[in-house]
Design a protein that fits this description.
By secondary structure, the protein is of the alpha/beta class. It has 11 helices and 12 strands. Helix 1 packs across helix 2, helix 1 crosses helix 3 (29-43) and helix 2 (18-25) packs across helix 3 (29-43).
């Protein structure tokens, strides 16, 4: 097994397409196919399932990818240190997180990081749920992820960043818009605009209703944060959202946010990555984010 075979395998696993992988690696499709077949022969199991529009990783392929990522990262770190390039941070970091978190919370930090590290490319993958973020990390298609639900895995490094709270969001003309706190019994007749099932926010919302034995009347469901806020603004219902996601609308007088007197809806947001040695750009990015934990907590709790 050669390193160039592992690099080819990783590229195919990331793109799930031989044509795209061949273009990125500047190799012919037949060369790509030959290398993958050689690996499969060496392992004695198929790494991909051939599909009409590409390929799909098998369970064995996922395991192989996890080890391939570690080998390639440690090889890169060895190259950097041996060549004395540790301080020359060059490469890419693939970041996975929910769309709303990328847009409303982390974007300013990412911009600052890119300004400070011009030779590091940040590549973003938007996910709808923490499970998808974790899967992206384990499958080697993302290097770092942000998770808003508890994550347990022996192969993952999980570090808490900040506490997040979901607040009740209503339109400015809503009967509760002037309140700063609300009791649950004041919401008995409300219609709810919820995120689709599977989304991290929906999971937290469902847990909240389940604990209080509440059956919410659902007006509509969507994973588009902008659409949810717009529907709340137009009075079609109320919703639970992170306070940081509605900061601008509250400032502009379009929405109002209200906290619960009891039974707050809180989540812990963590940064996750594979355990083990990491390439210098990935280490730099993780350290950068961890150094700004207090700043993120202020952003998450800001009105």
């Amino acid at each position: 097994m050669e390193l160039w075979q592992l690099r080819t395998f990783r590229e195919v696993a990331e793109t799930l397409n031989f044509t795209k992988a061949s273009e990125k690696l500047n190799l012919t499709q037949s060369a790509i196919s030959h290398q993958i077949k050689a690996l499969e022969k060496e392992f004695g199991v198929p790494l991909f399932i051939r599909a009409k529009r590409g390929v799909i990783l098998t369970d064995a392929g996922r395991i192989a990818l996890e080890y391939a990522e570690r080998i390639l990262e440690e090889t890169e770190e060895m190259r950097e240190r041996v060549a004395g390039l540790e301080k020359r941070l060059t490469g890419r970091v693939r970041v996975a997180a929910a769309t709303q978190a990328l847009v409303y919370l982390f974007a300013p930090l990412f911009e600052e990081f890119m300004d400070a590290h011009e030779n590091i490319e940040l590549v973003f993958r938007t996910t709808t749920a923490t499970e998808q973020t974790v899967e992206d990390i384990l499958n080697g298609v993302a290097d770092v992820g942000f998770a808003s639900l508890a994550v347990y895995s022996p192969t993952l490094q999980v570090t808490e960043l900040f506490d997040d709270e979901l607040v009740l969001v209503v339109g400015k003309k809503h009967r509760l818009s002037e309140k700063t706190e609300v009791k649950l019994n004041e919401l008995q007749k409300e219609r709810w605009i919820l995120f689709e099932r599977g989304a991290s926010i929906r999971r937290a919302t469902d847990d909240f209703f389940r604990k209080l034995s509440v059956e919410p009347e659902t007006a509509l469901e969507s994973n588009d944060t902008y659409f949810v806020k717009l529907m709340v603004e137009h009075g079609l219902g109320v919703s639970l959202l992170p306070s940081w996601a509605v900061r601008e609308e509250i400032k502009n007088g379009k929405l109002a946010q209200i906290r619960f007197k009891k039974n707050q809806v809180k989540r812990k947001v963590s940064i996750i990555s594979l355990k083990g040695t990491k390439a210098a750009p990935i280490r730099a990015f993780i350290e950068y984010i961890l150094d700004r934990k207090e700043h993120l907590q202020k952003l998450a709790g800001a009105v």
